[in-house]
């Protein structure tokens, strides 16, 4: 299997778990924060959904330059809006990975803000860190938010305490 095929299988598997979790977000509690420094529930849920769309920036493009983009947060009116975003971005990731070549993962990728370079790494490392691990990190946070709101959590890699 190629790197793209391996990642695509993981993306599709994890998208199911992510979608289950996002479907539980209670929009009426959109402003909930477990701590004053935390993101709101709806901002975190949107961020989890948005990460699935980072494949274009991390694999197709060769750099992300914060000085050249509009990185304002979108607003969402319902949990369904966030699910729709997630589904759309996963479908785009699927197309990107289906068309990726092995040599794409060997190219360098740079994160910068104008002249300030934060780092340059191989795309293989960038997609693992920013498209996959970053998703898992924030999905774990979302699990905690939902637990604090006393919402039963779905199984992901096996039964949860709520459905075991």
Strand content: 5-15%
**DSSP, total strands:** 3
First-to-last CA distance: 34 Å
CATH superfamily: dinb family like domain
- How would you classify the helix and strand content by structural class? mainly alpha
SSE run: HHHEHEEH
Task: Estimate the global geometry from the Cα principal axes.
Answer: globular
What level of helicity do the residues show?
A: 40-55%
Q: What's the CATH class, please? A: Mainly Alpha
- Segments where pLDDT lies below 50 for 5+ residues? none
Report the CATH architecture.
Up-down Bundle
Strand order of the largest sheet: 1-2-3
| Whole-angstrom Rg | 17 Å
Biggest sheet descriptor: 3 strands, mixed
* Average pLDDT figure: 95
Main attributes of the structure:
globular, mainly alpha, 5 helices, Four Helix Bundle (Hemerythrin (Met), subunit A), 3 strands, 51% helix, single chain
Write the layout of secondary structure elements.
Blueprint: H1 3-22, H2 41-51, H3 55-60, E1 63-65, H4 79-99, E2 108-113, E3 116-122, H5 123-148
Parallel strand pairs: 1-2
Antiparallel strand pairs: 2-3
Helix pairs in contact: 1-4, 1-5, 2-4, 2-5
Would you kindly provide a written description of the structure presented here, covering whatever features stand out?
Helix 1 runs parallel beside helix 5. Strand 2 (108-113) and strand 3 (116-122) form a beta hairpin. The model has no long low-confidence stretch (mean pLDDT 95). This protein has helices at residues 3-22, 41-51, 55-60, 79-99, 123-148; strands spanning 63-65, 108-113, 116-122. Strands 1-2-3 form a three-stranded mixed beta sheet. The chain has one domain (3-68, 77-148): Up-down Bundle (Four Helix Bundle (Hemerythrin (Met), subunit A)), CATH 1.20.120.450. The chain is globular. The longest helix is centred in the C-terminal third of the chain and has 26 residues, at 123-148. The chain is mainly alpha-helical. It contains five helices and three strands.
């Amino acid at each position: 299997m190629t790197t793209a095929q391996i990642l695509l299988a993981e993306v599709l598997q994890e998208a199911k778990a992510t979608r289950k979790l996002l479907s539980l977000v209670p929009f009426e509690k959109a402003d909930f924060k477990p701590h004053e420094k935390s993101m709101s529930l709806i901002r975190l849920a949107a961020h989890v959904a948005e990460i699935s769309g980072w494949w274009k920036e991390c694999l197709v493009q060769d750099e992300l330059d914060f000085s050249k983009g509009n990185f304002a947060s979108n607003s969402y009116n319902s949990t369904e809006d966030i699910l729709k975003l997630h589904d759309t971005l996963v479908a785009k990731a699927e197309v990107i990975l289906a068309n990726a070549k092995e040599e794409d993962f060997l190219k360098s990728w740079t994160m910068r803000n104008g002249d300030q370079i934060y780092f340059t790494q191989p795309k293989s490392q960038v997609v693992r860190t920013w498209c996959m691990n970053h998703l898992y990190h924030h999905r774990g946070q979302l699990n905690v938010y939902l637990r604090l709101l006393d919402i039963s959590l779905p199984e992901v890699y096996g039964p949860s305490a709520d459905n075991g």
